[in-house]
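Subject: complex prediction, re-run

Hi both,

The earlier run crashed halfway through, so I resubmitted it with identical inputs.
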Amino acid sequence: MADNPPTDHPADPLVIPFGKATARPDGQRPRVLAIANQKGGVGKTTTAINLGTALAAIGEHVLIIDLDPQGNASTGLGIDRRTRRTSTYDVLIGAAPMREAVVPTAVPQLYIAPSTLDLSGLELEIGQSRDRAFRLRNALSNINNGARSYDFTYVLVDCPPSLNLITVNAMAAADSILVPLQCEFFALEGLSQLLKTVDEVKKTLNPKLSIHGIVLTMYDSRNNLANQVVADVRQFMGRKVYDTVIPRNVRISEAPSYGKPVLVYDLKCVGSEAYLRLATEIIQRERELKAS
Ligand SMILES: Nc1ncnc2c1ncn2[C@@H]1O[C@H](COP(=O)(O)OP(=O)(O)O)[C@@H](O)[C@H]1O
Ligand SMILES: [Mg+2]
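This time it finished cleanly. Structure:
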């Protein structure tokens, strides 16, 4: 699948097809999906930003939690470092409630709890405390309650490229894990280690944790190897792999430097279309889960 030729009219944010809000009844828990893969550069942050935007565009109320000290999800959504007064670090060390860190983005119905570099010191700060793995779960427990409440239907947690205490917090708080996998030769290698960690967390911290799905990212059909990787991953993981494959698309990589999701930067490009399809697929899967 080739990239769309660059258009010189980045889409007007107003053309996003924002649907009818599908807010949960007051106080109901949102679905929490952790976007995890210990490899860097596989599309975690890109997926958090653009899946979050796509879900918001089709009516969900979405909170992205930036748990990477690099703060790329925050920057990519246009949250200036100087304005990050309360960050996920403050929340996880217990210095502030989650709702204090939550800020709106330029996308309607999409909010973010930003991160700062402080987060890289989390392990030193809370590594000895008994509830160290449950800081995020506890911080999210009443996000849809109380005076300054929200009615989030989805929480997407953008994890750092490591299986450290931060990622364990995300997995302990999550209903389900979403794994971005880059279409390259070593894709499957890291996956088994990740699945082992998920199993471990399931046994010890979060018995109801599941793998929501695997999303293949940065797919380039001109690359024969990529096709082989897609076939291998589908054979190995079967139905866990989403039908939607995210193509390598230059618009996706340009958008963060404008502090915009690709759906706002260029709604019509193949990257935006793919993330909208992924959002639809995820909601479909949620319906099937609920029905089963
Ligand atoms: N589908 C895509 N097409 C082109 N570039 C992409 C795509 N997905 C991600 N990228 C780029 O690849 C780099 C790594 O992606 P990122 O989402 O930051 O990975 P991670 O969060 O897993 O480290 C970024 O520069 C991003 O813009
Ligand atoms: Mg990232």
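Residues 40-46, 72, 161, 217-218, 246, 248-249, 252-253, 256, 271 surround adenosine-5'-diphosphate (ligand 1) (CB under 6 Å).

- K.
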